[in-house]
Write a structure and sequence with these properties.
343 residues; mainly beta; nine-stranded antiparallel sheet; four-stranded antiparallel sheet; 3 helices; 19 strands; extended
């Protein structure tokens, strides 16, 4: 009963050249129908799985822009270029108002595919005043923390954001989860490149980056980032230094708990990471020997160069590398010295 996914693409573009400026602008609309999705089996079937199903339609729309400027100042030739892509992703057909949740990913009509669906953290309980808030919630509703453990000093206090008719009901449950981010793909992708050459010397630089991608930490880059202790497991230094402990009121992370106590590892926006970054992808400096000299050694062209890949990365992401997923090996910085010979 399965069929292939079907994609319908509309693209309108303009290529132009004005003086030293060249570029193009494209608007695109991509509708994908009959997307193959792993739907969760009803709980009555236990841990059984069901086959993939053609159950979704997704629309990607956006704009692409590319610009390049070539010019000359005296004996220096130079160029400056850039590209920019904006993409809006939306599930246009799925199961009406019904959603499917897989871990922290949710699929629901009207939202980006696999948007993050997590609890929201109000604060880390660090003072007696914070504890008084917890006690007030229990006094108002003895079942305030019936689904999750009652928080203590050093624990997260999650926000009560939903209940009947959208009014907070005084309980912290799965119904208090909120949608965060824009799915599993960046909203914006961009790049810059520039360079120049003068009397045999040449220089170029390429930068690239993305924005608008948020992912839940949940196991990314190893379990050492969780605020937990377990024999044989490592603890991330950021967690160890920033954890709450008795007497501290400025902690940036909750207290360390035994791995069997997961109250602070509940999927929440505290553990949602922004993977936006700007990376200096390549820098290269070269020198080409004048032809009258290279031809003396029977060479048509002789060029020496040094190149650095992944020189610098600017990001707030706490993982190994914002450009890769999970625990894959991070992108390495590579320095190359080379010679180009043409006979």
């Amino acid at each position: 009963g399965l069929s292939w996914e079907t994609t319908y693409v509309t693209n309108i573009g303009v290529d132009f050249g004005i003086s030293n400026l060249t570029g193009n602008v494209d608007y695109f609309l991509k509708n994908t129908k009959d997307i193959l999705i792993d739907l969760p089996a009803p709980l009555v079937h236990g841990n059984a799985t069901i086959p993939k199903t053609n159950a979704g339609e997704v629309r990607n729309s956006g704009v692409e822009l590319n610009l390049t400027w070539n010019d000359k100042i005296g004996e220096v030739n130079y160029f400056v270029g850039g590209n920019f892509t904006y993409v809006k992703n939306e599930v246009t057909k799925f199961k009406g108002e019904e959603s499917v949740i897989n871990g922290t990913n949710m699929i629901v009509e009207g939202q980006p595919i696999n948007i993050q669906y997590v609890l929201s953290v109000d604060r880390i309980i660090q003072t007696e005043a914070d504890l008084a808030i917890v006690q007030a919630m229990v006094d108002a509703n003895p079942n305030a923390f019936s689904q999750y453990k009652r928080p203590e000093l050093g624990d997260f206090l999650y926000k009560d954001v939903s209940g009947p008719d959208g009014v907070p009901d005084g309980r912290i449950t799965d119904d208090d989860r909120i949608m965060v981010g824009n799915g599993t793909n960046p909203t914006i992708t961009y790049g810059f490149n520039f360079g120049a050459n003068w009397k045999g010397f040449d220089f170029s630089c390429l930068l690239q980056g993305t924005s608008g991608l948020k992912v839940h930490w949940g196991g990314l880059d190893g379990a050492s980032f969780w605020p937990q202790v377990r024999r044989g497991n490592q603890i991330n230094k950021t967690i160890a230094d920033g954890r709450w402990y008795p007497g501290r009121t400025d902690a940036s992370y909750p207290r360390l708990l035994d791995y069997s106590d997961g109250r602070n590892r509940v999927a929440s926006d505290f553990w949602v990471q922004d993977k936006s970054y700007l990376r200096v992808k390549n820098i290269q400096l070269g020198y080409t020997v004048p032809k009258n000299l290279s031809q003396k050694v029977l060479l048509d062209n002789l060029r020496f160069y040094i190149s650095i890949d992944n020189a610098l990365t600017f990001t707030n992401y706490k993982g190994l590398d914002p450009e890769v997923e999970g625990t894959k090996y991070p992108t390495m910085r590579l320095t190359t010295f080379g010679v180009n010979l043409t006979f």
